[in-house]
Amino acid sequence: MDTVYHTIEPVYDTHSRILILGSFPSVKSRESKFFYGHPRNRFWSVLAAVVSDSLPSSIEEKKAFLLRNHIAVWDVIASCEIKGSSDSSIRNVVPNQLNRILLTAPIAQIYCNGATSHKLYQRYCEAETGRSAIRLPSTSPANAACSPEKLTESWKIITENL
To answer: Which of 47, 57, 82, 104 has the least C-beta neighbours within 10 A?
Structure first.
């Protein structure tokens, strides 16, 4: 496996209240050059439902959507060895420097999109940030057992900190 580097800049500003972390961008996200780029990933539709906002489509719309709703987005991993988009194949992790966001934005809570990002956050980032994260069910198409309705209900917790 080759080492793959995260090339998508985090989205945040000085008004961001929550930080949502994925593990590492999927092949589709890396190709589209933005977070949650797989057409079957439910991240954008779930977030739009949770914050009662319109569904963004372009990268510019997605950035504006996140900032308008005080949401920061990034990933736990800066680089790793990975096979395709398989979280289970991730090896030799180098974490992102999350304090880049935490020292700039008034983040009230960190949320992890799925079990893998949560596990990686706990292992590589929690000691540095000094903050715990809340694990949310993954919006990935690989988590097909979780219905869009159940995802939306679970993700509503983020509104407590917006």
So the answer is: 57
